[in-house]
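COURSE: Structural Biology Practicum
ASSIGNMENT: Worksheet 4, Part C
STUDENT ID: 0417
INSTRUCTIONS: Below are two proteins. For each, the amino acid sequence is given first, followed by its structure token string. Answer the questions at the end about the second protein only.

PROTEIN I
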Amino acid sequence: MHAYRQAPWRTRRQTIGLFLAVLVCASMVAALYLSVTSRTAIIGREIQSLESEISANRQRNADLETRLAVLLSNRETERRAREQGFRPASPDEIHYLVVPGYVPPQPVSLAARPDLRVNAPTIPPEYTQSLFEWFDEQMRASTSSSSPVGASQ
């Protein structure tokens, strides 16, 4: 048999083709990596932007709460009432009304009432018995019922 030998231009073309295929694969991987990295960076920037916006809104909210507290303070309320013509009432101007049937609210007691414990539902003994206790009871019941009749006399 004759040994088949390829022409030199064919081997160069195959080498160049293999090199170009590797180069195309490497550029595709690099493009994919660049795409993923750029998307991650964009999303990271959006998150930073949203976090700074949240921080600014919290600061604005705190400022508004402070302004509201100042407006609702006793000193500021009295000042605005005086500007509108109000004044403190004298003891002669105060009148109390008795409302029939009105029961003032009772203070809330957080202590447990003892009568609630007395009326608490009890758990039947069947539900408090363990598996081993039940098994022992069944064994005793079966041995007592299977004992000889003449042995008990």
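PROTEIN II
(use this one for the questions)
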Amino acid sequence: MVKIRLRKTGKLNAPSFRIVVADVRSPRDGAHLEVIGFYNPRLGTEKVDLARVDHWIGVGAQPTGTVVDIVRRARTGETVQGKKAEYKAKQAAEGKKD
């Protein structure tokens, strides 16, 4: 079976993820069939190729729960704020400089 899931990249305490299509038997950061997007939770950035997601779901790939949420946000145009963006917004609201 094929899954659409996250592959961890980045460095210690600063993770970022690639959205990949992979066989369920391969390890989390192992071999994959295709990279179809990325997600950085710290900065709140996401990019997903929705056409490729639709293709892979059409041929039977199963997305994980987190990927379903990311794809939903990409389709509706919602944004996600990372911790850094939340911190900066809080500082700006309090009138403090960075």
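ANSWER KEY EXCERPT:
Q1: The chain has three helices and five strands.
Q2: The mean pLDDT is 88.
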